[in-house]
Amino acid sequence: xxxxxSYQTAAGPLVIIPIHHASFVMEWNGETIYCDPVDADxxxxxxxxxxxxxxxxxxxxxxxxxLEKLAGEDAAIxxxxxxxxxxxxxIAGRTRVMANGDKTRWxxxxxxxxxxxxxxxxxxxxxxxxxxxxxxxxxxxxxVYLASDTEPTPEMEHLGKIDIAFFPMNLPYTMxxxxxxECIEKTGPRYAYPFHxxxxxxxPGFEPxxxxxxxxxxxxxxxxxxxxxx
Length: 230
What we know:
Shape: globular
Helix content: 10-25%
Structural class: alpha/beta
Number of strands: 14
Radius of gyration: 16 Å
Number of helices: 5
Order of helices and strands: EEEEEHEHHEEEEEEHEHE
């Protein structure tokens, strides 16, 4: 059984279920949202998705075989164009393409695509600006920020109120713990999940406790330490 974290919103509880590496599930108001689902077997005991959100085309975020098994006939899909181009035809046909800055509403959930990219010169080859999406989700005023594979960016300073954030933490592809602290300072979430902190999965990487130890005294942000590789 996966750990489940519940946060109260103006329209009922938002439940967050970390799955593995960069995959997680959000349940709210009758909706089940899969974020970057990889390896369909990991989702076998969970409700079927009503929405699948994809951030970019790398193999630890995009698993076309898993999507064919998980999407069923009814799940809606949101993705950037580079992902849409790689999807099986049937799934691509019901996918809404969003670019950085695009906004939409899906049922009662506001969704905005946010730029995600590397800023360190030697890392820019991994994630180029304008290719993938992070996302803001607005659940009746409770805002979740999925940063996806990024480093600190100027765009983070203008996102507004963030309640819950997911930040990647590994090298060379994303960030050091110090950089995640910088992201937290830019966005000010009440809760921050470090994830994507081992790649390859079976090799040592950063750990959530390292991030928690770096936050200054008196910070309003609570680090939510979960084992994403159990």
